[in-house]
Amino acid sequence: MTRLEFQHAFEDILEAPHGSLKETDSRDTVETWSSFVDVDIIGLIARNFGVEPEADLMEAETFGDILRILEAKKVFTA
């Protein structure tokens, strides 16, 4: 999964238009992003990348934080 495909899947979970999510977006700025949605996001990450919810991922506050953690794990395809 590419970074863009991940963003689109993330936006689908949030019921947001593709391309609308910014790296600075968080639960505070996206109305549909709740702790219940976090379960779906963790599932998306686990299914597509085999990454289990470690402390760094669970403590991520923004979409950009999540991207940086996943990029550091080198999970995205070209």
Plain-language structure description:
This protein has 78 residues and is mostly helical. Helix content is 53%, strand content 0%. The protein starts with a helix and ends in a 6-residue tail after the last helix.
Count of the separate structural domains: 1
Identify low-pLDDT runs.
none
* Distance linking N and C termini: 8 Å
CATH topology tier name: Non-ribosomal Peptide Synthetase Peptidyl Carrier Protein, Chain A
Order of helices and strands: HHHH
Q: Which value, in Å, is the CA radius of gyration?
A: 11 Å
* Beta-strand percentage range: under 5%
- Helix/sheet category: mainly alpha
The named CATH superfamily: ACP-like
Shape: globular
Tell me the layout of helices and strands.
Layout (H helix, E strand, L loop, with lengths): L2 H12 L20 H15 L5 H4 L4 H10 L6
Helix pairs in contact: 1-2
